[in-house]
Amino acid sequence: MKKIIIIFSILTLVSCDLPNSPGPMPTDIEKTKFEPGLNIFGILRVDGKNYGTSFIRVERAYLLNEIVQENAVFVPTIDSAHVQIIHDGKDTIQFLFKYDGTYDNVNYIPKSGQPYSIVIDNTEFPVLRGSTIIPKTPIVNTVIRNSEELSVVVIPDSTIHLFEIYPIYGTGVIHAKRFTNDANKHVELTVPNRDEKLGPLNRIEVFSYDKNMSDYLQATITIKPQSYNEMVKTVEGGYGVFGSVVRSVVYLR
């Protein structure tokens, strides 16, 4: 069930405006040999803010039966890791421990369209490595169809593998939809200008994901009782995902 928790975390941490959904239930149970190692959820974010919002969460892989052991304190998080983000194989940025296995750097803002890699070192486990290319910002246009409807047109770049369109009405989200990139073809989503309960449509948010996050978000969920071992793994020397997302906003009012 840990995979479900992490998918839920993606939605709540990417934006406070996103809906809260734990995602699909597991469909398979797979037996595997337990191999100790680091397990991460790391995401580089380009969201238009003037401070860094990227973060890396570091845990150790663990046996599922550790969670239910009586009289045992279950703490899978790693608070003493050395986390480095490397831009284009040259510039190295340190992500420092913040709390509960989470590392960040509010002074660092990554750039869209650029390659990044991650290296995490902890003396107890093998070195974990991963890489991502942050998607380029898509072209987002709005077209007023009539007094009641508006169309959102998104033209994705080839660096975008998955994107989500979120119409924001007041403080709520409805009519959200996810799309895969089909040969960079434009996508059009028509939504009402107003919702009876939430009020007028005030902005459109588009979240564009790299291949790693696309694979992770669309993966079939599998429970592996002997260990926490992702069905989709985008890192080497450990478990988990290291990916990126770009947030685009069009204000309408």
Fold and architecture overview:
This protein is mainly beta. It folds into 2 domains: 2-134 and 210-247, no CATH class; 139-209. It is 8% helix and 46% strand. It contains 2 helices and 19 strands. It has helices spanning 2-14, 211-217; strands spanning 28-29, 38-46, 55-60, 82-87, 91-99, 102-104, 115-122, 125-133, 139-144, 149-155, 162-169, 172-173, 177-180, 187-192, 194-195, 199-209, 222-223, 235-236, 238-251. Strands 2, 3, 4, 5, 6, 7, 8, 11, 12, 13, 15, 16, 18 and 19 form a 14-stranded mixed β-sheet that branches. A hairpin with a 4-residue loop joins β9 and β10 (149-155). It is elongated and about 60 Å long. The relative contact order is 0.22.
Brief description of this entry?
By secondary structure, the protein is mainly beta.
Given helix and strand content, the structural type is mainly beta
Mean of residue pLDDT values: 84
Number of helices: 2
The total beta strand count reads 19
Helix share of residues? under 10%
Question: Which H/E pattern describes the elements?
Answer: HEEEEEEEEEEEEEEEEHEEE
Oligomer: single chain
- Contiguous runs where pLDDT drops below 50 for at least 5 residues: 1-24, 224-229
Radius of gyration (CA) equals 19 Å
Largest sheet: 14 strands, mixed
What characteristic shape results from the CA principal axes? elongated
Defining key terms:
253 residues; 2 helices; single chain; 2 domains; mainly beta
Itemize the secondary structure elements and their pairings:
Blueprint: H1 2-14, E1 28-29, E2 38-46, E3 55-60, E4 82-87, E5 91-99, E6 102-104, E7 115-122, E8 125-133, E9 139-144, E10 149-155, E11 162-169, E12 172-173, E13 177-180, E14 187-192, E15 194-195, E16 199-209, H2 211-217, E17 222-223, E18 235-236, E19 238-251
Parallel strand pairs: 1-17, 2-19
Antiparallel strand pairs: 2-3, 3-6, 4-5, 4-7, 5-6, 7-8, 8-18, 9-10, 10-14, 11-12, 11-13, 11-16, 15-16, 16-19
